[in-house]
Amino acid sequence: MKLLHVADLHLGIQVFGFSMVEEQAFILKQILETAREETVDAILVCGDVYDRSLPGVEAVNLLDHFLAEAPCPVLMISGNHDSPERVGYGASLFQKQGIHVQGRPRKPLPYVVLHDAEGPVEFYLLPFVRPEMLRGAEGFEGRTHQDAVKWMLSEMPVPNGARRVLLAHQNVVAGDEVRSAEEGANVGGLDAVGASVFDGFDYVALGHIHERYRVDQDPDRAVIWYAGSPLPYEFGRPSERGGLLVELGAGGHVEVRPVNFKGIHEWRQIRGPLEALISPEITSQADTEDYISAILTDEEVYEARERLVSVYPNLMQIGFDNLRTQQAEGAAGLTELPSMDSLDVLFAQFYEKQNGVSLEEEDLALIRQILEAVES
Ligand SMILES: [Mn+2]
């Protein structure tokens, strides 16, 4: 059985104020083309379908079109960026069309059975789950993400010889179960889930981490892969991106090969003095319409943004590396934690990072009012 595993589409994301809708439409088209050309038996979409819990109209339309055009069954789970309810909307209706969507985690895990010449394959759907979401659930007393995932995976049907695939959206690390803080070490962060909780599956299709890699090389374990996000959304990440073609053979033998998708524009970091960066010698060397992050090394420079944009229309980010910034960084060796009354500043910084423009004075005043109300 042949599967196309993708994840972290983040439909509707804005990067430094740039809409990614066209880029994402281009990616979705390539996913559909690959599914057709490779005659895959199912497409697995492993969470963070949307970028935010309230996706915009364009994002919803992208997914709508994608699902309507899919040449094979689609199995999809929600991620931490998704609203389980909204992703799960219409799920029972879609099921009749071969679109299997799990928005909210459910126990026992719902599964879908597909068949090939070698027999049945069970696909278990585990949307993003955190311990807080299970509070009050009977028999759950865990505190970590791993506890939550383990609990969700308990009470699975008794193995019946069918091959088993899991779709999940978590921070999974190689090796045995991660020990909780009370027991001592906690490797890989508070939300880490050890790969051994997936013993019993033949293939685990993951989303959450935006790079494509195999989590655990242990031959006795499930074959566990992150598909990575098909677009980088950040600078300084590997440019080869896409999804995974997974061949599930007899007896649960798994073969995985990467399939790359292309963005409309490349993501590129440039660095140097302004005059050099906008000189024909430099600009003629690559596509000036690439998404650009520019680091200027000038000590003093005027109208840097305007002049860069006139050459690089898709300039996303601009920074400086000069004596002034180096001194500032040196001085800031010990950063103080923000106090409550600097939350407005933090919010303004977050807003600017998210949207690429700074917060209007009026909106900042509103945020201050809200923060005051919260505090009082
Ligand atoms: Mn993600």
Oligomer, anyone?
single chain
Superfamily (CATH H level) name of the largest domain? Metallo-dependent phosphatases
Order of adjacent strands in the largest pleated sheet: 6-5-4-1-15-16
CATH third-tier fold name of the largest domain: Purple Acid Phosphatase, chain A, domain 2
Cα-atom radius of gyration: 23 Å
Q: Which residues form runs of ≥5 with pLDDT under 50?
A: 332-337
Category from helices, strands and their pairing: alpha/beta
Helix and strand pattern: EEEHEHEHHEEEHEEEEEEEEEHHEHEHHH
The amount of helix comes to: 25-40%
The set of bound ligands, ions and cofactors reads: manganese (II) ion
In what range is the share of β-strand residues? 25-35%
* Count of individual domains: 3
Strand tally is 19
What CATH architecture of the largest domain would you give?
4-Layer Sandwich
Layout of helices and strands, plus pairs?
Layout lengths: L1 E5 L7 E2 L2 E2 L1 H17 L4 E5 L10 H13 L4 E4 L6 H4 L3 H5 L3 E4 L8 E6 L2 E8 L18 H9 L9 E7 L1 E3 L18 E3 L8 E5 L5 E2 L8 E4 L14 E8 L5 E8 L5 E6 L1 H4 L2 H4 L7 E6 L7 H8 L3 E6 L2 H9 L11 H13 L5 H15 L1
Parallel strand pairs: 1-4, 4-5, 5-6, 8-9, 9-12, 10-11, 12-14, 17-18, 18-19
Antiparallel strand pairs: 1-15, 2-3, 7-8, 13-14, 15-16
Question: What are the key terms here?
Answer:
376 residues, alpha/beta, Purple Acid Phosphatase, chain A, domain 2, 3 domains, 6-stranded mixed β-sheet, 11 helices, 27% helix, binds manganese (II) ion
